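The data are set out underneath:

___
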Amino acid sequence: MDKNKLQHAILKEIDIGNIPLNAEIFGISDIEFVNNVNSLMAKKLIVNAKIDFTSSLYEAEITSDGENYLNENSTRGKIYRTAKEIRDWIK
């Protein structure tokens, strides 16, 4: 998955309160998930992120910069929601 799409998806899930999150939800490796969460923290798009030993993100808050990022990338969000709905429907 493209890094920007993945980070947008993680931000969106945090924004709507769908936590805990983990790599499996996004179909990526634990390392890739942790690296992307760390990147979001470094960009100050999320704060207070806590990842446990199973690489699950169980607490995080989206910052105002994170909200701005989501608003500026709303088209990406619409695509993500549609893909998620299709994935949920297929299950």
